[in-house]
Design brief:
Helix content of chain D: 25-40%
Distance between the termini of chain C: 43 Å
Number of strands of chain C: 16
Oligomer: heterohexamer
Radius of gyration of chain C: 22 Å
Protein name (chain E): Ribosomal RNA-processing protein 42
Largest sheet of chain D: 5 strands, mixed
Number of strands of chain D: 9
Structural class of chain D: alpha+beta
Largest sheet of chain C: 5 strands, mixed, barrel
Helix content of chain C: under 10%
Number of helices of chain C: 0
Number of domains of chain D: 1
CATH topology of chain D: Ribosomal Protein S5, domain 2
Distance between the termini of chain D: 51 Å
Keywords (chain E): Coiled coil, Cytoplasm, Exosome
Chains: A alpha+beta (234), B alpha+beta (228), C mainly beta (187), D alpha+beta (258), E alpha+beta (301), F alpha+beta (280)
GO molecular function, one term (chain E): mRNA 3'-UTR AU-rich region binding
CATH superfamily of the largest domain in chain C: Nucleic acid-binding proteins
Family (chain E): Belongs to the RNase PH family.
GO cellular component, one term (chain E): cytoplasmic exosome (RNase complex)
């Protein structure tokens, strides 16, 4: 496709954001009736729905772990989510590396189902954030939130939270998931070429993004619980 | 009479090459090649068997063929069946009831007679794994070319323009009984029997080669034991 | 019409005139046939109503039910139970084997907790047992806790067919070796 | 890509014969292409007990369409789960050569749905509560398909006879028939040709002596009055087919006595 | 699937006889309904319907260009596909949902696939014998609590109402060769022709001798026979399908068809009315420049 | 199919204890790779790589196919990473195991996503005929670190492969056999090399090229694919123990030095093989 201008000279991106600016994030928990915990998150035009069932009995005897719960993640994409429609195979598993107190539920299973309704870049980060919110909504004890965000590098300029256009052009795309309290990296995955010296700056920009997301998600959780508390108090 | 890859006689076999116990995770492994066509075979067993294929009074023999290129297709399934039926009678599976013997055959390079290379490779691998066996198996392939003479151990070119292909496998007992006979193409009865005769003599040479290879390996191991 | 052949769903009469025998069913006051077969009207002394039964022509393959006598082959033995593949139910062979289990507490009626399963059954024996319950998803629960139930045919280690000498011993005619089985009283 | 079979080239297309002139489905005297009246059923040939291995089986021909049905069971369930009642499993498969367009070996969406319909149509008639923990498997193979909806109807009738032939206790036989709406006329038992130019079709499976409809399937839009009339016509046809089914079962008795 | 004890079964069956159901509804009442169109921006048309506090269906319609079928070369195509997302219920994980998906997909395709759905297929053909529009209707079930097929039909009708097809310009290159070009200007994309007589489905569940509409999961468990009837605006029947494994007496069936027609009529009127109002609100907002706030998942019944 | 037997407790303590003192069970220092041997077969594009006792062979083959509709001018590059039970009894024939999915995704990211091989050059007739290059990886022996070994085998086989020469006159395409015209190599832009790390003791201890024992005991792992121009082609740390950011930066430094060494070894091996072929 024609080399469209991803970064204008005065530093603005295709959708008018500054390089280190996140897309608009809206999140909501307990959206579904049947699931034990559920969450819906919108990052720009990427919309993901997460549902959590568990901890519950393990379905296949073979996989039982005597000392902790096994986490089973299933991820599928709605056919109308991307620009051209294709039916994806159902089981392309994403290992999201979420840190749970799994040792508290031995010999059990926690299922996380992720459903991408609309895909405009940064699907993995949206899924991880949605899964975290759903797990919190399900009341499963966790060490910390897991917040993920992507960052890239266009003409040597680190850029935060890539959308579909920036992602499909050959620019490198780094997804980082951290535990905000300790700042430790839980998951990191990088695609297409990025010079090693740029790694540090792009990674730190992504970590900043994660912290911003953490504050937003934390705010959402707190005021839903507040809302719950008030309605109970009446 | 000149053959396409420089061999002079019809019954001349290409250079054999064999090496044993080259893998660590398998109980026994071996690589065997007739000239260019090479096959690596590995044997694991006797191991735990799935309830589904458990046999009360003998070991279950499972054989998997992995082609050189691409995913396994129906052609490899036919190869699997032929190899399993050739090799299974020689294993004394009665001594290891309710266990699994898993043989994996990885075809490295195809240049003519893959079926017989695989049989020889499995033979060596089972020897290396120390399975109780009633006899060894050696196999040679013969083709009849348009000029009606019998060529042993064909290369892929000779295989292509052959009118019929015959693969035979014999055990190394005194009576050399036949374990595998796999023929394709149009041929007359006596052509079939003369091919069998030629392959029987050739397989004696293969048996001799296997014996010397194993002897060398064991002598080398004894030396290592004495020296260390 | 001495013997008329009926097909399933064919009306046989009013429910109050007859009692429903085997092969028939009653719905909304009417009696219907439920199998293909010959209609028989039987007069029996007890109830003044005649009973209609359908003698089946098409034999349905047998299904083990509670109380039916079965013959089967022991497939696997472990300390808690011996698993049986059921071949014959109440003298009708079933086309495909059903899966049954003789739990250790159902092997015999006397000294039930001192039973050693390997002294009662060995894989390959043929046993006659009785179905005591539908059991779990995989197998029916069987019992050999009667004299005429237990092993009726067994091969010795030497491969000969053994002869039962007592209710718990069998002898190989060739090697005279005694092996322990829970034998059925031969009748 | 099916690795278990030798596959031909991926994209091969049915040769398109160029359009001969539009054939007249109904001529002036309300006669159809094969000479039948609008509510005549094609001649039915049915024979039970042909497959030695099966408990019960039927071979059925109507016109030049051919269906074979085999019943296995009652036997142990493959995926054992404790159920108080027996379970009926049905599988219908169109042979690859049976239709105008070649069908694949694996079962496609339509065959999966027809198998589901077969289960729903037959279950009300079978006394499953007498066979706890066991399953009855019905396998239907369509050898030649002359009108998909009439083949489905034939499969239901053949399966019902096969169940009776297997000696399984049943409340009643299930007969099924189908009609096609062509230029707001109702054509009984449509053939493949008539199906191509139909506006809609209806399949009704019916238990004549218990007077209960076990399954109904209609597509294409019609006035509700015509739909009701069509259902009645189907019910009459089912009673006719029911008599054929009974005679087949009676005949199979005489042969088995010899 | 939740297991139903005999007592619960009798409670529900008795309730239906005396026209009273567990949640207070009469036999022929629907649960409260939330409907919203245009949620998925990348689809040509989308709609989400949430029935009561449970069943939640999202339908996305995408329009693509495709080769014409050799034997039907002057018409476009409609392809339906239903998917149960495992978030709807535990048993849809992995291959659990395949049978239900297939059943729902076939039911939808049977009603919307052919001319009986009222869409003018000729208009979908761009160049006779070459290219045509293919309308992909993808339904996703995000939450499952009963009466899924009716919800899918309603969501599909709303989504098709919301669908816009880009305009195409055809240039004649002479000697029968045609070339067409798609204008991707959103303004003059036009609506599907003939969507006003798209049918909706009404499912009647026979429990005991009475029959009910819009069954909850527990009621669905003690349904002996299920009859789904597709009815369109001028009360024509576009499809009948029976589900579940019980028999229905012919007289009762024709009575059920009449009730379904009556309910279908009133439901279509209310649905069309609601779609028109929502469309007007959106157009007004767009006129005076406010951004259109889509509730999406934040709408709670 | 027997699940890999977990190492015993004292084995774990022994390995951890020796790592704390900077030693490894097989005598290597924490940042050392095992000995790397590359051996080429007679046909082009077939190489066997031995990393210590882990053995993987890669075989490249080419065929002419119709291109995908949405990319008419681009050739195809396919990887087949099905692991047979020969590598270890834990792998089953039917279902791809967790490890196999990780390996195939890492190789896809490292070789295809980073455009290591120029697929535009594989086009013969746009929209009609393009070259489809298939890389088959055969896993012989799983003694730890299959990812690095497989990646080295794949990229070396691609460098070593020669496809038949093709001439196109108008519509007519002729493919010359190997002896008619000497075959054409693929155009490989850069050589990505995977370097895998394993982490122990809460992420403090770091080891390169883990053996099978170390792989079973590790708490976290990471794989970095880089080329000699110091560009990271792929990086994947999927789960496992959380790490400090500077630990990851330190790993990327180690990876640069290791990549240089291995690339140089590959080029030397290729040169030797070319010389041998010339001599023949």
């Amino acid at each position: 496709m024609s080399r469209l201008e991803l970064l204008t000279p005065e530093g603005l991106r295709v959708d008018g954001r500054r390089p280190n600016e996140l897309r608009k994030i809206i999140a909501k928990t307990s959206v579904l009736a049947q699931a034990d915990g559920s969450a819906y998150i919108e990052q720009g035009n990427t919309k993901v729905l997460a549902a959590v069932y568990g901890p519950q009995e393990v379905r296949h005897r073979m996989q039982i772990l005597h000392d902790r719960a096994i986490i089973n993640v299933e991820f599928n994409v709605a056919p109308f989510s991307t620009s051209e429609r294709k039916k994806r195979s159902k089981n392309d598993k994403y290992d999201n590396g979420i840190k749970l107190q799994t040792s508290q539920f031995p010999r059990s299973q926690i299922d996380i189902y992720l459903q991408v309704l609309q895909h405009d870049g940064g699907t993995l980060q949206a899924c991880i954030n949605a899964a975290t919110m759903a797990l919190i909504d399900a009341g499963i004890p966790m060490i910390d939130y897991v917040c993920a965000s992507t960052a890239g590098c266009i003409d040597k300029q680190p850029v935060l939270d890539l959308n579909y256009l920036e992602e499909s052009s050959d620019s490198p795309e780094l997804t980082v998931a951290i535990l905000p309290r300790t700042g430790k990296v839980n998951l990191m995955s990088m695609e297409s070429r990025l010079h090693v010296d740029m790694l540090e700056s792009v990674a730190s920009l992504a970590t900043e993004g994660c912290e911003q997301i953490h504050t937003i998600l934390d705010a959402v959780v707190r005021d839903t619980t507040q809302h719950l508390k008030d309605s109970l108090m009446q | 009479m000149k053959r396409s890859d420089g061999r002079t006689e019809a019954t001349q076999l290409r250079a054999f090459a064999a090496s044993q116990s080259l893998l660590n995770r398998a109980d026994g492994s071996a690589k065997f090649s007739f000239g260019e066509s090479t096959v690596v075979a590995s044997v694991v067993g006797p191991a735990e068997v799935k309830i589904r294929d458990e046999k009360m009074d003998e070991a279950t023999v499972e054989l998997i063929v992995r082609p050189a290129v691409g995913f396994p297709t129906t052609k490899d399934k036919v190869l699997e069946r032929a190899l399993r039926q050739t090799v299974e009678p020689t294993i004394l599976s009665g001594m290891m009831p309710r266990t699994l013997i898993q043989i994996v055959v990885q075809i490295e390079q195809v240049d003519g007679n893959i079926l017989s290379t695989a049989v020889n490779a499995i033979s060596l691998a089972m020897l290396d794994a120390g399975l109780p066996m009633s006899s060894l198996v050696a196999s040679v392939t013969a083709v009849i070319d348009p000029q009606d003479n019998i060529l042993l151990d064909p290369s892929s070119q000779e295989l292509e323009n052959a009118t019929s292909v015959h693969t035979f496998a014999f055990d190394n007992t005194s009576s050399y009984n036949l374990l595998l006979s796999h023929s394709a193409g149009a041929f007359s009865e006596d052509q079939y029997f003369s091919c069998m005769e030629a392959c029987k003599h050739a397989s004696e040479r293969v048996h001799a080669f296997i014996r010397t290879a194993v002897e060398k390996k064991i002598q080398k191991e004894y030396q290592q034991l004495q020296s260390s | 019409m001495a013997s008329t052949i009926v097909t399933p769903g064919q009306r046989l009469g009013y429910a109050q005139d007859f009692t429903a025998g085997s092969g028939t069913y009653e719905r909304d006051g009417l009696l219907y046939a439920s199998v293909v077969g010959v209609k028989k009207v039987l007069k029996d002394a007890t109830s003044h109503l005649e009973t209609i039964t359908i003698v089946r022509e098409k034999e349905q393959s047998a299904v083990p039910s509670v109380g039916s006598m079965i013959t089967g082959k022991i497939t696997k033995v472990n300390p808690r139970f011996a698993s049986v593949s059921i071949n014959v139910v109440d003298s009708t062979p079933c086309r495909e084997d059903f899966q049954g289990v003789i739990r250790v507490q159902d092997v015999r009626a006397t000294e039930r907790d001192k039973v050693k399963i390997y002294n009662s059954f060995r894989p390959g024996d043929i046993v006659r047992a009785q179905v005591i319950s539908l059991g779990d998803a995989r197998s029916y629960y069987l019992s050999t806790a009667q004299n005429e139930l237990g092993v009726i045919f067994a091969k010795s280690v030497a491969g000969e067919t053994m002869i039962p000498v007592s209710w718990q011993e069998m002898q190989c005619p060739k090697t005279k070796v005694i092996e322990y089985r829970k034998c059925a009283k031969p009748f | 890509m099916d690795r278990k079979r030798v596959n031909g080239p991926e994209l091969s297309v049915v040769p398109v014969e160029e359009h001969t002139e539009e054939k007249q489905i109904l001529d002036s005297k309300e006669r159809r292409l094969d000479g039948r009246g609008i509510d005549d059923i094609r001649p039915i040939f049915m024979k039970s007990g042909l497959i030695s291995q099966a408990n019960g089986s039927t071979y059925m021909e109507f016109g030049n369409a051919k269906v074979v049905c085999a019943v296995y069971g009652p036997r142990q369930m493959k995926k054992p789960s404790f159920t108080g009642k027996g379970v009926l499993n049905c599988e219908i498969k169109f042979a690859t050569f049976s239709c105008k367009k070649r069908r694949a070996f694996q079962r496609d969406a339509q065959e999966k749905e027809f198998s589901q319909i077969l289960v729903q149509a037959l279950t009300p008639a079978v006394r499953l509560d007498l066979l706890p923990k066991s399953s009855i498997d019905v396998y239907v193979n369509v050898l030649e398909n002359d009108g998909t909806s009439s083949t489905l109807a034939a499969a239901i009738s053949a399966a019902s006879v096969a169940l009776a032939d297997a000696g399984i206790e049943m409340y009643d036989q299930v007969a099924a028939s189908s009609i096609a709406y062509v230029q707001n006329k109702i054509l009984m038992d449509p053939s493949a040709l008539e199906e191509e130019s139909e506006d809609g079709s209806l399949v009704v499976s019916y238990m004549p002596s218990l007077n209960e409809i076990t399954h109904i399937l209609q597509n294409g839009n019609t006035e509700s009055a015509i739909a009701n009339k069509a259902v009645e016509q189907c019910i009459d046809a089912c009673s006719k087919i029911y008599s054929v089914m009974s005679t087949v079962l009676l005949q199979s008795l005489d042969t088995s006595d010899k | 699937m939740p297991y139903l004890s005999q007592a619960e079964r009798d409670y529900i069956t008795e309730g239906v006889q005396s026209d009273l159901r567990a949640d207070g509804r009469g036999r022929l009442d629907y649960r409260a309904l939330v409907l919203e169109t245009g949620i998925i921006s990348q689809a040509n048309g989308s709609a989400r319907v949430r029935l009561g506090d449970g069943t939640d269906v999202l339908v996305g319609v995408k329009v693509e260009i495709d080769q014409v079928e050799p034997d039907a070369d002057n018409v476009g195509k409609v392809v339906c596909n239903v998917e149960c997302s495992p978030s709807a219920s535990q048993q849809f994980e992995g291959h659990g949902a395949d049978d239900l998906n297939n059943e729902l997909t076939q039911a939808l395709q049977r009603v919307l696939g052919g001319p009986q759905c009222g869409i003018n297929f000729e208009k979908l053909c761009i160049i006779k014998g070459q290219q045509c529009w293919i309308v992909y209707i993808d339904a996703m079930i995000l939450d499952y609590s009963g009466n899924v097929l009716d919800t899918i039909f309603m969501a599909t009708k709303a989504a098709l109402f919301n669908t816009r097809i880009p305009k195409t310009q055809i240039q004649d290159l002479g000697d029968g060769e045609f070339e067409f070009e798609v204008l991707d200007d959103v303004e003059d994309a036009e609506r599907l022709d003939g969507i006003e007589n798209i049918p909706i489905g009404v499912t009647l569940n026979k429990i005991g001798t009475g029959h009910i509409i819009d069954a909850s999961p527990l009621e669905e468990l003690c349904t002996e026979a299920k009859l789904t009837i597709a009815v369109n605006k001028d009360s024509q029947i576009c499809g009948i399908q029976k589900g579940a494994e019980g028999g229905i007496e012919p007289g009762l069936m024709s009575e059920m068809i009449q009730t379904a027609k009556r309910i279908g009529q009133s439901l279509i009127q209310q649905l069309d009315q609601k779609l028109q109002d929502e469309e007007q609100q959106v157009d007004e907002k767009r006129l005076n420049g406010e951004n259109i706030e889509k509730l999406g998942f934040f709408a709670m019944v | 199919m027997v699940r890999e037997a977990d190492p015993s407790l004292n084995e774990k303590q022994f390995v951890l204890q020796s790592l704390k003192e900077g030693l490894r069970v097989d005598g290597r220092r924490p940042y050392d790779f095992r000995s790397l041997q590359l051996s080429f077969h007679s046909d082009f594009g077939h190489v066997q790589v031995q990393l210590g006792r882990t053995r993987v062979s890669a075989k490249v083959s080419a065929e002419v196919v119709r291109p995908r509709a949405d990319k008419p001018t681009e050739g195809l590059l396919l990887f087949n990473t099905e692991i047979s039970p020969m590598a270890s009894p834990a792998f089953e024939v039917g279902r791809p195991s967790e490890e196999e999915v990780l390996i195939s995704r890492t190789i896809e990211k490292a070789l295809r996503r980073s455009r290591a091989v120029d697929t535009e050059g594989l086009c013969i007739v746009a929209g009609e005929k393009v070259w489809s290059i298939r890389v088959d990886l055969h896993f012989f022996d799983h003694e730890g670190n299959l990812v690095d070994c497989a990646c080295i085998a794949a990229i070396t086989a691609l460098l070593h492969f020669r496809r038949p020469d093709v001439t196109v006159i108008g519509e007519e395409v002729t493919i010359h056999s190997l002896d008619q015209r000497n075959p054409v190599p693929l155009s490989v832009h850069h050589i990505p090399i995977c370097v895998s790390f394993s982490f122990f003791d809460g992420g403090e201890l770091l080891v390169v090229d883990p053996s099978i024992l170390e792989e079973q005991i590790r708490e976290g792992d990471m794989t970095i694919a880089m080329n000699i121009h110091k560009e990271i082609c792929a990086l994947s740390k999927a789960g496992g123990i959380p790490l400090e950011m500077d630990q990851i930066i330190r790993c990327s430094k180690i990876a640069t030095t290791k990549t240089a060494e291995i690339t140089e070894m590959i080029q030397k091996a290729l040169a030797d093989d070319k010389a041998k072929r010339q001599a023949k």
